[in-house]
Design a protein that fits this description.
The complex is a heterotrimer.
Chain A: H1 5-34, H2 41-66, H3 74-88, H4 94-119, H5 124-142, H6 152-159, E1 161-162, E2 165-166, H7 167-184, H8 186-196, H9 198-203, H10 208-234, H11 243-255, H12 267-286, H13 291-315
Helix pairs in contact in A: 1-12, 1-13, 2-7, 2-10, 2-11, 2-12, 3-4, 3-5, 3-10, 4-5, 4-10, 6-10, 7-8, 8-10, 11-12, 11-13, 12-13
Chain B: E1 7-18, E2 21-32, E3 36-41, H1 47-55, E4 62-67, E5 70-71, H2 77-83, E6 85-88, H3 100-105, H4 119-132, H5 149-162, E7 167-171, H6 180-192, E8 196-200, H7 204-210, E9 213-218, E10 221-227, H8 233-241, E11 264-271, E12 274-281, E13 286-290, H9 297-304, E14 312-317, E15 320-322, H10 327-332, E16 335-338, H11 342-346, H12 353-358, E17 366-367, E18 370-371, H13 373-387, H14 403-416, E19 421-425, H15 433-448, E20 452-456, H16 460-466, E21 469-474, E22 477-483, H17 489-496, E23 499-500, E24 503-504
Parallel strand pairs in B: 3-8, 3-9, 6-7, 7-8, 13-20, 13-21, 16-19, 19-20
Antiparallel strand pairs in B: 1-2, 1-4, 4-5, 9-10, 11-12, 11-14, 14-15, 17-18, 21-22, 23-24
Chain C: H1 29-49, H2 56-81, H3 89-104, H4 111-134, H5 140-159, H6 169-176, E1 178-179, E2 182-183, H7 184-202, H8 204-214, H9 216-222, H10 226-252, H11 261-273, H12 285-304, H13 309-326, H14 328-331
Antiparallel strand pairs in C: 1-2
Helix pairs in contact in C: 1-12, 2-7, 2-10, 2-11, 2-12, 3-4, 3-5, 3-10, 3-11, 4-5, 4-10, 6-10, 7-8, 8-9, 11-12, 11-13, 12-13
The chains are: A mainly alpha, B alpha/beta, C mainly alpha.
Chain lengths: 324, 511, 336
């Protein structure tokens, strides 16, 4: 009887992530076989650079989805973060100041989403659609056309190395550590509980509202950080939201085995999912696939990978109940 | 009694209404230390509202509650627990994707020195707690979703007990338990410690075993409070139902058509939750299905109507072998299911009552595919008399109707499909007395006209009163079949509990 | 064997029933009327601020620009009614426009087959969406988002993203001319609105859509044709997007693959503002129409006031949230 404890406990939380990680390794191997430079420090650093924004944004999204809600506002927060950094970092606020402002923005947007959904009971899909559009508007108001400048300390700092470790790798590591801690915390348990069965969570004494608010605020903060890193990568401001980025965020989450219905999965899977998507892009490019096919492949492979990811989340639910 | 044992809970003139519905009206009762008090009532009597108020989930509109002399006004579950009331809910409040240990300590599992929840730490604690309550067959690291219903119920109960409440509320706590003695032993033990228990159940034998007193609710009001020992079963039933059970009706003459092809013949079917079931259903017959919760009745009905796939066996309708792969096909064969969960599987909440009923024949009420309201109404009014559904309800949104009237609407819709074979799954659940009577009449006249009904009910006296024959399920297969003359509640219950010819069939396995 | 049915606060006893809703879906007309009123207020407000605004010419011009959203949001509205969503709408519009431009190439000769062919292709994309949702069981969010990306790629491949021009003069003429002083598109809108309303709120199939959206579980048990209806609805959405693409191409005289993207979010917004529940089962067509008209009017007003696009987006987002807040009592009465 005692033997099956650990195995069973890990099952629901890790299964999807393990499968996704496996897929990631396979894909990376295929990619590396065509592009030997991928295995160098430079190559890895480059890959991390390409992945980190998606990884951070999709991580934020994971929190909202885990507690059973939708959040479309990611690209909006990223856009605002980007234009804010582009307009203030080189001038009025400096690097640190702009970072602080960006975090504040993430907090505010996430908080608003959370209050509207958790305390006022509005549908999250519709609410975050509204905040996405509103954020786009704010971004355009701050910077009507691409321009501005991201101060060098950020642009080179974030994309460079600290003690020969790529900064994105550090960010990734910090994210993983954060998640491992959160997962073991009371709030982490609460998020899973609320996402799995809201009614039971309430009857168990959990505060559903604060849990959801917390999840949305976390999401907002991670979007903000993603936006900050994005600014570093492109070096200037662009207020327009990329439509496909939202897809990539959801795809990363879904591929990683987090159930879109909530309660199952986690950030580790999402990070693997983000990696898979990025390697996929690079692989298609390295294989010399014409532009024509890239998007098509993207779409199809994405659906397949998502099915794969959702299947593993479904399988984790399999142990049949005895009785009816 | 007075002065001897202190009063623990004083529930005074509590009322609660939801809109126009009166859930509780001026209900008062007391609980004394160390006593077990039963709470009885039909579906819709107000028991669950009362439980929710005691648990801190719902705030009453008026009245007052005192716990150990102090006012009891909890802001939520946690408050209520802190004040000393813990509940084992009928709708289990456990999170399937978390472990037993995590669930046990929700919402505030212990933190280790890093401020995190240590799985091994809480599991150790949980193991100790489970053991102290005599539970040795549940590993605390297992996820709730991996446990069978009976074990989950144990966890739910242990969780409530562990908070050492002054008042322990057990809401239908034995519904899935296979070992009731365990619970009875615990109840006796906590009584000795001075805890009061509010025991909600509809099983009279349990009430008699455990409770000294009982309170009976009907339509939101307390109709009786008395010692259990001094009341007969009939007296209890009639207080609950407001009628004497025998009055339900004298046995009607059998309407079974003899020497005709059976409407439905099922031979050796197996599938998810169905284990080698065979039976036949004749025209004009009401065939009952009985079984304790979780013994295959739900899967059987679902399989018959095509919601799950059968792996073995044959189904014949009207003499021809058929493969029912979906409810659409079942309907084309003349079989329609009236499902268990009205709210999620029966009603279309955004539509009016009329629209709910007319759905199967909506194309017939349309010309050029555009719905003609008056044709629709005429079609619907052909079936509403059969269920005694007043016409004035038709233009109203279905959610504005009482549970009984909603169920009548669902039945009317089933009639509307023109089906000759109705599969009714607990059709009188959550239905008031008057509506129940209408439903019985509808069933009788339906089979009188040559239709057939497969009828599952959790109320044994319904089965005894209405059925021509009754199948009893035990662990997903048929434990026995009772003819009209053999039909009695005792026989049904004993077959359903696994006793055949006086002996218990198989050792009851846990997990 | 429980009283859990009592937990639904909207039930009543035989002793008294709640406010009777006379119509089939009576209370749902309130949000629609509110939004119409808001639109009217907008126009009146503009007229006061700017007396030259609000002439017959201008109103009809607003209606012409509204046509795209009106048509697109109908399809989106049906999909949302069923509990789904169509995120490929924008791309299908672009593809529709590109196709009609490509195949007519500035002349009217090919119109006879170009229009049906374009519509067929767009309907086909919708069909694929529907199959993915109904047969493969993939969440609509994912299916339509991914198909949008995929077909965008297909479109890119065929056209390398270049704008196609010019579009057949007949279509351009249709979009810019008048008959009896009223622009052709306005007549089109009227006819379209009638057909849309009849289908969604008066037809037998429409009734079934409401049932499926309201309770998929009950619909399945009742044996409603869920797969065929789902596929059909997504196909209709694709068709509407195709029509929108053709009209848009005619209006702009040329077509780009991206031109439909700006209509995606507003199409969802129009449905939501009009009072529909995002999870499906409620909301009348009149509401979607009101939402579409409101957003189009808002857009025109903002342009007239020379406010930036940023401002327009901000207001649009705010309007969605305000609409949600206003409908809170009505929508949350029944929690899922």
């Amino acid at each position: 009887m005692a033997g099956d404890t650990v195995r069973n406990r890990r099952k629901a939380l890790g299964n999807g992530a393990v499968a996704a990680a496996g897929l990631l390794i396979v894909m990376f191997a295929v990619y590396a076989s065509h592009q030997p430079t991928a295995l160098t420090l430079f190559g890895v650093g480059n890959l991390l650079n390409n992945t980190i924004v998606l990884a951070l944004a999709a991580t934020g999204l994971t929190f909202a989805i885990l507690c059973g809600e939708f959040d479309l506002s990611g690209p909006g927060v990223i856009a605002i973060a980007n234009v804010v950094v582009a307009t203030t970092s080189a001038g009025s606020l400096g690097a640190a100041g702009s970072f602080g402002l960006v975090l504040l923005i993430g907090l505010v947007v996430g908080g608003l989403n959370g209050i509207l959904v958790a305390y006022l009971g509005l549908q999250s899909l519709a609410v975050t659609l509204g905040s996405l559009i509103a954020c786009q508007g704010v971004a355009l108001l701050i910077l009507p056309a691409p321009g501005g400048q991201v101060v060098d300390s950020i642009a080179y700092g974030i994309t460079g190395n600290i003690m020969s470790v790529p900064v994105p790798a550090l960010l990734l590591a910090l994210t993983i550590v954060f998640w491992l801690l959160l997962r073991q915390s009371r709030m982490g348990l609460a998020i899973y509980a609320v996402g799995t069965d809201q009614a039971a969570a309430g009857l168990s004494g959990l505060n559903i509202r604060t849990t959801k608010l917390f999840a949305f605020v976390l999401a907002g903060l991670f979007y903000a950080i993603a936006g900050f890193v994005f600014s570093a990568e492109i070096g200037s401001g662009d207020p327009r939201i990329s439509d496909s980025f939202l897809l990539f965020m959801f795809a990363a989450v879904a591929i990683g085995g987090t159930s879109l219905f909530g309660g199952r999965g986690g950030v580790l899977g999402t990070l693997a999912g983000a990696g898979i998507l990025t390697v996929l892009q690079k692989m298609l490019f390295a294989l010399g696939v014409a532009d024509f096919y890239t998007n098509i492949f993207n779409g199809i492979i994405m659906i397949l990978a998502i099915l794969f990811g959702q299947a593993s989340a479904y399988l984790a639910r399999r142990p049949e109940r005895r009785g009816t | 009694m007075e002065g001897e044992t202190p009063k623990v809970l004083d529930f005074r003139s509590v009322s609660k209404r939801y809109g126009v519905t009166i859930a509780l009206h001026d209900v008062s009762f007391e609980l004394h230390a160390g006593e077990v008090c039963g709470l009885l009532g039909e579906n819709g009597a107000g028991k669950s509202t009362l439980v929710k108020i005691l648990s801190g989930v719902v705030v009453p509109d008026s009245g007052s509650i005192e716990l150990r002399g102090a006012p009891f006004k909890p802001q939520g579950i946690v408050d209520a627990r802190a004040a000393g009331i813990a509940t084992a809910f009928q709708e289990l409040s456990l999170i399937p994707t978390l472990s037993v240990a995590a669930n046990l300590f929700l919402p505030r599992p212990a933190l280790n020195r890093f401020g995190l929840v240590s799985a091994s730490g809480i599991e150790r604690e949980a193991a100790a707690i489970l053991e102290s309550y005599g539970v040795t067959d549940i590993a605390p690291g297992r996820l709730i979703e991996e446990l069978p219903l009976g074990l989950r119920q144990k966890v739910e109960i242990v969780r409530a007990l562990w908070h050492s409440p002054s008042v322990l509320v057990l809401d239908e706590a034995t519904a899935a338990l296979s070992d009731r003695e365990w619970l009875f032993g615990l109840a006796d033990a906590v009584r000795r410690d001075g805890t009061s228990v509010l025991y909600i159940s509809h099983k009279l034998d349990e009430i008699r075993r455990l409770c000294q007193r009982c309170v009976i609710l009907r339509n939101g009001r307390k109709v009786l409070e008395s010692d259990v020992a001094s009341m007969s079963d009939e007296a209890i039933f009639s207080s609950m139902a407001g009628r004497s059970p025998a009055e339900a009706s004298k046995k009607r003459p059998s309407a079974v058509r003899q020497r005709t092809e059976p409407v439905l013949q099922v031979a050796g079917i197996s599938g998810p939750g169905v284990d080698h079931v065979s039976f036949s259903l004749a025209a004009g017959e009401i065939l009952g299905v009985a079984g304790l919760e979780g013994h295959g009745q739900s899967s059987l009905f679902k399989a018959l109507v095509g919601l799950s796939i059968l792996t073995e066996g044959t189904v014949s309708a009207g003499g021809k072998t058929v493969s029912v792969r979906s409810p659409r096909i079942a309907r084309s064969l003349g079989m329609v299911l009236v499902p268990e969960e009205r709210k999620s599987e029966g009603l279309f909440h955004d539509l009016t009552t009329q629209a709910n009923i007319s759905l199967p024949v909506i194309n017939r009420a349309s010309r050029f595919n555009l719905v003609n309201r008056s044709s629709e109404r005429r079609l619907v009014e052909k079936v509403t008399p059969a269920v005694n559904l007043p016409e004035r309800f038709l233009p109203l949104n279905i959610d504005a109707l009482s549970g009984g009237n909603q169920q009548k609407a669902v039945l009317a819709r089933a009639l509307m499909t023109g089906a000759k074979c109705l599969l009714l799954f607990d059709p009188t659940r959550g239905v008031d007395v008057g509506a129940k009577r209408n439903i019985y009449e509808m069933m009788r006249s339906f089979v009188g006209d040559g239709g057939s009904i497969l009828f599952y009910s959790t109320e044994l006296d319904e089965l005894v009163q209405l059925c021509d024959r009754c199948l009893v399920l035990y662990r997903n297969s048929i434990a026995g079949e009772l003819d009209r003359d053999q039909l009695s509640q005792d026989r049904i219950l004993s077959l359903a509990s696994g006793y055949r010819n006086g002996a218990h069939q198989a050792a009851v396995e846990e997990a | 064997m429980t009283d859990k049915d009592l937990a639904n606060p909207s039930q009543a006893t035989e002793f008294g029933l709640r406010s009777s809703r006379r119509q089939w879906i009576g209370s749902e007309i309130v949000p629609a009327l509110t939004v119409f009123a808001a639109t009217a207020l907008l126009v009146v407000g503009m007229k006061i601020a700017n007396p030259s605004f609000g002439s017959f010419e201008q109103i009809t011009a607003i209606l012409v620009t509204a046509i795209f959203l009106v048509v697109a949001s109908f399809g989106q509205g049906l999909v949302i009614l069923l509990g789904g969503i169509d995120l490929s709408l924008g791309v299908i519009i672009g593809i529709g426009g590109m196709m009609i431009a490509e195949w007519t190439h500035g002349s009217n000769d090919a119109l006879l087959y170009a229009i049906p062919l374009t519509l067929l292709c767009c309907l086909g994309i919708g069909l694929i969406n529907g199959l993915g949702v109904a047969i493969a069981g993939i969440p609509p969010f994912i299916v339509t988002l991914a198909s949008g990306i995929t077909f965008y790629g297909v479109g890119l491949g065929f056209t390398a993203g270049n704008s196609q021009q010019p579009v057949a003069p007949a279509i351009q003429h249709f979009m810019s001319s008048r008959w009896l002083g009223v622009p052709y598109p306005v007549y089109f809108i009227v006819v379209f609105v009638v057909i849309a309303w009849l289908f969604q709120n008066r037809s037998a199939e429409g009734r079934k859509l409401y049932a499926i959206g309201s309770s998929p579980g009950a619909a399945r048990i009742l044996g409603l044709p869920m797969a065929p209806l789902t596929i059909a609805v997504y196909a209709i959405s694709g068709l509407c997007a195709g029509i929108t693409g053709i009209l848009l191409a005619g209006y702009s005289s040329s077509a780009t693959l991206d031109m439909g993207n700006a209509l995606l979010m507003p199409s969802i917004a129009a449905v939501v503002i009009g009072g529909a529940r995002v999870t499906g089962g409620s909301g009348i067509y009149l509401g979607t129409l009101a939402g579409a008209l409101f957003l189009s009017t808002l857009s025109t007003v903002i342009t007239t006031l020379s406010l930036s696009q940023g401002f327009r987006d901000l207001v649009q987002g705010g309007v969605i949230i305000i609409a949600l807040l206003l409908q809170r009592g009505r929508l949350n009465l029944r929690s899922r």
